[in-house]
Every structure is written in C-alpha cells, then in structure tokens.
From TrEMBL:
This is Beta-glucosidase. Keywords: Glycosidase, Hydrolase. It comes from Trichococcus ilyis. SUPFAM superfamilies: (Trans)glycosidases (SSF51445). It holds the Pfam family Glyco_hydro_1.
Length: 422
C-alpha cells in the first residue's frame, strides 16, 4: 500500500466567503473575540487547482480537505447542486494530479440554521448530520475512499476542561490576570453575543461545535459519527470511514501515584472513553501538536526556557511518535496522522519539526504499527479562527492583498519524503 503523504486544510479557513456558516456570524458580531473576519480567506474556493498543482509539484500524493456543510445545505433540507458540482471539481482535480483525497465532512464550522435548531447539544443534530453525509456520499462518494466524519470530535470537551481550569485559577487568585482574565471574559461575552445572534431562548450559549460541551453533547457527537459512518457505508461500501481526535503526548512530571493517576485520568477523558464508538471504524485520524506535562496538581506550564510556537504550544515534534504508540495500544485499526504541524514565522524550524516528526512515524512503522499516512497542517497560511491571519502554519505563504502563493522550503522538504516511505 502506498504511504499517503500530504497536507491538510479546513474549508472555512481557506475557501473564503462561507456566508451561511455559524463562524461567519460570530466573526462579524459587534463584540466578537475574532481579531478579524475571514472574508475571502485564501480564496481556495477559486484557486484550488493551483494549490493542488503545487502539492503535486512538491511530490505529495494526498490532500485532506473538508467539504463545507454550510455550502452543501445552506438551508435546512435544501441541498445546493452547484456546490456539489464545485466539490466534484476539487475531487477530480486531485485525481488528475495523482493526489489521494481524504475528505472531512465536518471541520468545526456548521450551517447557521443548525445552531438555531439547537446546535451540537440537540438530539436532532444526529439525523441532520447523517442526512448531509448520506447526500454527499450519494453524489460524490465514487470519487474518494477515505472519509473523516468529524474533525477533533473531542475538542468541545477539551475546551470545557480548559475553561474549568481557568475559572479554578481565578477563584484561587493563582492566575496572571493580564493574560488569562481577558480571555475568559471575552469567551463569555462571545457566547452571550452568539446566543443573541442566533436568537435562542434557552441555554447558556448557542451550542456551536466549539462551545463548552456537556457529557450529553459529547455522546451526541459520537452518535452523529456512528450514524453518518453507517449511512455513508450503506451508500458506498468501498469507503473507509473514521474520525479524528485531538491528542496530546501526556507525560508524568514525577512517578508519584497521584501524578500517575492524573495522567491516566487525562488519557481516559481525551481518548479511551471514545474507543467504544470507534471500534467499528476503518481508521483513526490522529491530530497532535505538542505534549502536556502532568503533575500532582494537573497540567503544568511548559518547562522554563522551552521554545514556544506562535500558539504558545511547546515546540515538541517528538510528541507525535509517543501518541501514535499510545493510541496503538487500544485502537487496532489503520492509523492516519491527519494533522501535525507548527505555527511559526521561522520556516527552518518547521523543516526541523517535519523531519523529527516523520522520523518518529518511520519508527512506528518499523515496529509494525499500521500508520498509513501523514498530513501536515497546513497547506496554506490561513485563517486561524479567533487568531485571524497572524498564525502561520502553512507550507505556502499567501499574500493577503493579491492572494499570490509563495511556497516555502518546508513544502519541498515534506514532498521529498515520498520516496523515503515508498
């Protein structure tokens, strides 16, 4: 089997003018916490052929991208055939350039109508999501093999845990007010504004995908995944279906029983409790960016003098190998690295990150772990959600005024590994 080596994007972050999505509404609120709106993003919607050609020229053979639900179904129950035709062209362009498409059905952004219907805490969303995925499979399924239903299905639970930690620090006065207090206030303001924007009469927020998730919402998302998986397989039995999870390399700060227990608890919440829902999946998408060191008091700050990325993650490409090995202890299916990357203005550090991360992947394969692909995040310097365009994860720089593409050395370095995994 050919090792899939490529890169990844998310529709809302690169396509531009995703006007029917919940994120578009949030970006344009009066009191938004987004530093800037997405607008035309990287104009990938119109320039996908150029971008796919750049991947081919670099030597890559795979591309993970998302189909935007808000484009396909801009109104509940009304599907847009023109948008299906658009994504058909994207898929055909991949095949014409020898690129294996890895399709993601939901990458954070949702149709705004879904949020007015209760969003990702509503029982009805399971059926809504299944119907959308089935429609796409019926119309486009013959053009792809790998499909990831939901990107980082555990992100809402991770967000809830982060907010809980911040609140706890506030209550104990053990917090850097100048940094963290505004974040918390801005988050709560955004949720209040989101609720008003979607005109919901109940609930603490509008239940977007990146809201703080309840245990019910967590279960609902996994049920939505299962329903979509089964519906897509029924239409196209050849499909390999999975989802992706955001996973950290969890390391114990010491060997005390309490610390070990804390590490085990974090892994249970981040990964293990999802295993019953994914045991029938064909693959699992692993998404890793860094490690977390855990002590008796929980997650610690990065070590003093540690190199931090633009996102304030610790620069730690070794984390990927550790996470792959840990996941393989419990999940016995095919593994794809669906995201791994670094936000930095220094492309040489990105090159070194890629080299270290891929060395770890090769070690895992040598030990018999079924890793079948690596997708680097991201193809383009894109719209990084609330951070706007200030975070540069891309293998290709984009001039925000002209949309001209400037491939970085990291793109060709990544492509050079195609022969090494052959």
């Amino acid at each position: 089997m050919t090792f899939l080596l490529g890169t990844a994007t998310a529709a809302h972050q690169v396509e531009g003018n995703n006007t029917h999505s919940d994120f578009w509404i949030q970006e344009n609120m009066e009191h938004t916490i987004f530093v800037e709106p997405s607008l035309d993003a990287c104009d990938h919607y119109n320039r996908f052929e150029e971008d796919i050609r750049l991947m081919k020229e670099a030597g890559l053979n795979a591309y993970r991208f998302s189909i935007e639900w808000a484009r396909i179904e801009p109104e509940m129950g009304k599907f847009d055939e023109n948008e299906i035709a658009h994504y058909r062209k994207v898929l055909e362009s991949c095949h014409e350039n020898g690129i294996e498409p890895i399709v993601t059905m939901h990458h954070f952004s949702s149709p705004k109508w879904l949020i007015t219907e209760g969003g990702w805490e509503s029982e009805h969303t399971v059926a809504y999501f299944k119907n959308y995925c089935q429609y796409v499979a019926e119309n486009l399924g013959e053009l792809f093999t790998y499909v990831c239903t939901i990107n980082e299905a555990n992100m809402g639970i991770q967000l809830a845990a982060i907010i809980k930690r911040i609140k706890k620090q506030m209550e104990s006065n053990n917090i850097q007010v100048g940094i963290n207090m505004p974040v918390m206030k801005d988050y709560e303001l955004q949720m209040n504004e989101t609720t008003r924007a979607f005109d919901l009469s109940t609930g603490e927020n509008a239940h977007t995908f990146l809201s703080q998730r309840t245990s019910f919402g967590d279960e609902l998302i996994m049920r939505a995944h299962e329903a979509a998986r089964d519906a897509m397989r029924a239409v196209c039995p050849h499909l390999k279906v999975g989802l992706s999870l955001s996973l950290h390399d969890l390391q114990a700060a010491d060997d005390t029983p309490e610390t070990i227990k804390n590490v085990e608890k974090e892994w249970q919440e981040e990964f293990l409790h999802y295993t019953p829902y994914i045991e029938k999946d064909d693959f699992l998408g692993i998404q890793n960016y860094t490690r977390e060191i855990i002590g008796v008091d929980g997650i610690q700050k990065a070590p003093e003098n540690a190199e931090l990325t633009q996102m304030n993650y610790e620069y730690y490409p070794e984390a990927l190998e550790n996470v792959i090995r840990k996941v393989a202890e419990s999940f016995k299916g095919e593994l794809l690295v669906t995201e791994n990357g670094i936000g930095t203005a220094d492309d040489e550090r990105r090159v070194q990150f890629i080299e270290t991360a891929l060395a770890g992947v090769k070690n895992c394969i040598a030990d018999g772990i079924p890793v079948h692909g690596y997708m680097h995040w991201s193809l383009l310097d894109n719209f990084e959600w609330q951070k706007g365009y200030s975070m540069t994860f891309g293998l290709i720089a984009v001039d925000r005024q002209t949309q001209k593409r400037y491939p970085k050395r990291s793109l060709s370095v990544l492509g050079s590994y195609a022969d090494k995994f052959a």
